[in-house]
């Protein structure tokens, strides 16, 4: 089932090939301050439609690229490595999508996982 999402103003839209099965709370300082609930996909599972001037990217250390809308400010998605045994696997990238942006989707009933992002590195 394709699931659609967008930022508040619609300048950044995306669709994913299947609805999320879980939501993830990351405890890293960035995700905590951003307030994002995430779900993860492979890049092939996410179709992005981004107005170039609306897409802004923040990266503290170059490992993760966090995108947000430059117009309305919504945190939209992040480009991240897969993590295995507290180590980044850059050969298997993932897209972390902000579940709060899905259109007409009830994420409150999904199981919630927590990642101890503050202690990954």
Automatic annotation (TrEMBL):
Residues 3-116 form the CENP-V/GFA domain. Belongs to the Gfa family. Pfam families: GFA. GO terms for molecular function: carbon-sulfur lyase activity; metal ion binding. Keywords: Metal-binding, Zinc. InterPro entries: CENP-V-like, CENP-V/GFA, Mss4-like_sf. The keyword Metal-binding applies. Coiled coil: none annotated. PROSITE patterns: CENP_V_GFA (PS51891). This is Aldehyde-activating protein. It comes from the Bacteria.
């Amino acid at each position: 089932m394709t699931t659609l999402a967008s930022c508040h103003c619609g300048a950044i839209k995306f669709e994913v090939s299947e609805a999320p099965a879980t939501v993830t709370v990351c405890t890293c300082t960035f995700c905590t301050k951003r307030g994002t609930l995430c779900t993860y996909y492979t890049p092939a599972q996410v179709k992005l439609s981004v107005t170039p001037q609306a897409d802004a990217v923040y990266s503290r250390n170059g490992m993760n690229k966090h995108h947000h809308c430059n117009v309305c400010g919504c945190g939209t998605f992040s480009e991240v490595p897969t993590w295995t045994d507290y180590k980044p696997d850059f050969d298997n990238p993932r897209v972390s999508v902000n579940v709060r942006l899905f259109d007409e989707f009830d994420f409150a009933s999904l199981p919630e996982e927590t990642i101890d992002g503050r202690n990954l590195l």
